[in-house]
Specification:
With about 100 residues, the protein is an alpha+beta fold. Helix content is about 45%, strand content about 25%. It has one domain (about 1-95): Alpha-Beta Plaits (2-Layer Sandwich), CATH 3.30.70. It starts with a strand and ends with a helix.
Length: about 100
C-alpha cells in the first residue's frame, strides 16, 4: 500500500512556522527504512498496512510531543500483491504522457 499523508501541529513557533515539528515527523519516516518521498504538501510512504500505519502513528506522536493538537490528512492506495508502486505509478504516467 501507499499512503500520502500530511501532519501539522495546531500551533506554530513564534513566527507561525511549523517546519521544526514537521521535520520531526519526516525524520520518523526516514528512519523507518520504508520507501518514501516528501514534497511540499505530503509525504508518501510504501509498505504493508501494519508497518505503514505504525510509522504514521509514530510521526503523529512526534508532532504531538510539541503541540497540544495535531492535524492528520491521509490518503491510501491499497493494492495487495503490488510493491514498488511508489515509483512505478509515476513511470507509467510518464510513459502515457510520452515524455
Amino acid at each position: 500500500m501507499i499512503v500520502a499523508f500530511s501532519i501539522s501541529p495546531s500551533v506554530g513557533d513564534e513566527t507561525g512556522g511549523v517546519s521544526e515539528a514537521v521535520a520531526a515527523a519526516v525524520r520518523v519516516v526516514r528512519e523507518s527504512g520504508l520507501p518514501h518521498e516528501t514534497n511540499a504538501m505530503f509525504t508518501n510512504l510504501e509498505g504493508e498496512w501494519d508497518e505503514v500505519m505504525a510509522v504514521v502513528k509514530r510521526a503523529v506522536d512526534a508532532v504531538a510531543a510539541v503541540s497540544p493538537r495535531v492535524s492528520l490528512v491521509l490518503k491510501a492506495d491499497i493494492r495487495p500483491g503490488f510493491t514498488g508502486e511508489l515509483t512505478a505509478k509515476v513511470e507509467r504516467l510518464e510513459r502515457a504522457l510520452g515524455e
